[in-house]
Structures are given as C-alpha cells and as structure tokens.
Amino acid sequence: QVQLVESGGGLVQAGDSLRLSCAASGRTISAYAMGWFRQAPGKEREFVSAISWNAGSTYYANSVKGRFTISRDNAKNTVYLQMNSLKTEDTADYYCAAEGPSGSIGSRWYGGPYEYSSWGQGTRVTVSS
C-alpha cells in the first residue's frame, strides 16, 4: 500500500496560481496511474485530473481544462497539479490518489479511466475574490 501526502495548498486570490504536490512513500508509483480529486464544502467529492503511469495520457474534468496541468516525476515519486487562473469555485480540499489492485471495490475511488485504492489526507485550497 502506497502512502500519499499532499502539500502546497493555501489561501490565494482569484486569478492566482498554486502548485500542489503529492509525495508517495512505501512503494514506487512508477507503475501506477495517479489522480487528483477535490471536495468542496457541502459538495460531493469530484474527479479533477489523472495521469497514466508513463505520463502518456492525461485527463481533466471540464471545469479545470485549460487551467490545471497534471504531471509526474517518477524518479522523485511525486505527482503535481499546477493550478492556474484559480477561481473561487476551486475552493476545496484536494486529494491525490494512486491506482492499485488492493482494497475492496466499494472502497475505491473512480476518476478518468482508472480505479484508485490509495489516497492521502488532502490539502486545503481556498480561493478568495
């Protein structure tokens, strides 16, 4: 089981940028697709972005296309989410997740073409106007 720790969140103004990082430990993530999810207050968790194990494919929710960019550095066992032109509606707790075969079907998260079995505790992003 991979352990994931998100960082980089904070309080910013609309139009600003943030770069979120997801550091993995316990296992290398080189063979795993990775994803980002977010959950805003009072709303359900939603898929944000995903990247294949070799970074050959990326996926984005329509709400963030053109503004967010997912990337990964397998040598550093880290995944990133560059968030530009932030909007107030981007305010949420952001979670990274790792694809994997472990865990029950009911406990997995789904986003893009992948299933995820591990995720972190989240990092909070607050965008003010």
Descriptive keywords:
mainly beta; eight-stranded mixed sheet; globular; four-stranded antiparallel sheet; 129 residues
Descriptive overview:
This protein is mainly β. Helices cover 0% and strands 52% of the residues. Strand 4 and strand 5 form a beta hairpin.
What's the short version?
The chain has strands at 3-7, 10-13, 18-25, 34-39, 46-51, 58-60, 68-73, 78-83, 92-99, 109-111, 114-119, 123-128.
Secondary structure tally: strands: 12
Unreliable segments of 5+ consecutive residues: none
User: Which assembly state applies to the chains in this document?
Assistant: single chain
Topology as a string of helices (H) and strands (E): EEEEEEEEEEEE
Write the layout of secondary structure elements.
Elements: E1 3-7, E2 10-13, E3 18-25, E4 34-39, E5 46-51, E6 58-60, E7 68-73, E8 78-83, E9 92-99, E10 109-111, E11 114-119, E12 123-128
Parallel strand pairs: 2-12
Antiparallel strand pairs: 1-3, 3-8, 4-5, 4-9, 5-6, 7-8, 9-11, 9-12, 10-11
